[in-house]
Amino acid sequence: MKIADILTGYVFLDFVFNSYVPQTFPDEILDLEGSVRTLDLTRNKLVDIPMEISKLINLQRLVLADNLIGRLPMNLGKLQSLKVMTLDGNRVTTLPDELGQLVKLERLSISGNLLVNLPETIGSLRNLILLNVSNNKIRSLPESIGSCYSLEEIQADENSIEELPSSVCNLVHLKSLCLNNNNVKQIPPNLLKDCKSLQNISLHGNPISLDYFQQ
Asked: Which element (helix H / strand E) includes 108?
């Protein structure tokens, strides 16, 4: 009997610290197709995400933290129901442009990877509330990030960011901006004025002058 037959009707699958440690994505999970709402495969030494993940059309929460994943499938955008995606502690170097097709995505956490930039298509994520890209190698945030109108929290500590795009000032719901240990020398002049919801801005370990915080 297949696992798909046993788990028919299940909406949550959690294989965290499973005694069986796979190197590839379990085919049995893909056979469940529309039944899965939450999938957690944390710490399973997965090396990739197969194209067939697009079968999980009702998947809302995907957690693949602390694996060995180096890239994301190009058809990632077909997961149209996805609201939460966690990929912390992998080896991802780039995010596909198709990321912008995940229009229902609310929380994207991909800290501790090898990213050097973010795709411009991230601006299509109008429902995104949390963006965590800390501990990567990102040099700049795309101008399109200013179109993520629902953003409340940006975590981008431990990167190589030198300046913020002026479009950040469009994020009127932004409450927390963390840029510790980057190379930020200045922030957009109107940031504190335009981001009226901003409650926390953290810039420890940056060569920024206090002049930028003068009213």
From this structure: strand 107-109
Least confident of 100-104, 109-113, 189-193, 202-206: 189-193
DSSP strand pairing (130-132 vs 12-14): unpaired
Query: Residue range 170-179: average pLDDT?
Result: 98
Rg (CA), the chain: 19
Give me 84's structure tokens. 């939460």
Q: How far apart are CA 7 and CA 3, in angstroms?
A: 6
Are 161 and 179 spatial neighbours (Cβ–Cβ below 8 Å)? Answer: yes
Write down the pTM of the prediction: 0.90
Q: Which residues contact 166 (CB under 8 A, 6 or more apart)?
A: 143, 146, 188, 190
Q: Extract the tokens encoding 67.
A: 């694996």
Which domains can be identified in the chain, with CATH numbers?
1-86 (3.80.10.10), 93-215 (3.80.10.10)
> Which DSSP string do the residues of 156-201 spell out, in sequence order?
--SS---B--GGGGG-TT--EEE--SS---B--TTHHHH-TT--EE
First to last CA, the chain: 68
